[in-house]
Specification:
Blueprint: E1 4-7, E2 10-12, E3 18-24, E4 33-39, E5 45-51, E6 58-60, E7 68-73, E8 78-83, E9 92-99, E10 101-103, E11 106-108, E12 112-113, E13 117-121
Parallel strand pairs: 2-13
Antiparallel strand pairs: 1-3, 3-8, 4-5, 4-9, 5-6, 7-8, 9-12, 9-13, 10-11
Length: about 120
């Protein structure tokens, strides 16, 4: 069964950067749509981006567009989320997920979730 393991979270000051990783137990990048979500304390989980495997297109939520960039390394079965110009409102637990399809920046019919990695943006 496919497993996803996130890492790279931590504490960062506003304006700083972090790179999150999502390692898959087997090859996913070219065959499955996938995305990233986050859940802020006391709030519901929200989608932030979705990648369509068929053409590699990426849709980002407006809240992260221009600051976050997703990329993948097929050789390592790993997806990366580069987060720049971080804001306190970016604080939360970040999850990668493999899903059925992309509805804009939302990954729908998620089949596999990672365990999440926490990000705190604070001075």
């Amino acid at each position: 069964q496919l497993q996803l393991v996130e890492s790279g979270g931590g504490l960062v000051q506003p304006g700083g950067s972090l790179r999150l990783s999502c390692a898959a137990s087997r090859f996913i990048l070219d065959f499955y749509n996938y995305g990233w979500f986050r859940q802020a304390p006391g709030k519901e989980r929200e989608a932030i981006l979705c990648v369509t495997a068929s053409d590699g297109s990426v849709n980002y939520a407006d809240s992260v567009k221009g600051r976050f960039t997703v990329s993948g390394d097929n050789a390592k079965n790993t997806v990366y989320l580069q987060m720049n110009s971080l804001k306190p409102e970016d604080t939360g637990v970040y999850y990668c997920a493999r899903g059925g399809y992309c509805s804009g920046y939302v990954t729908s019919l998620v089949e596999v979730w990672g365990q999440g990695t926490p990000v705190t943006v604070s001075s």
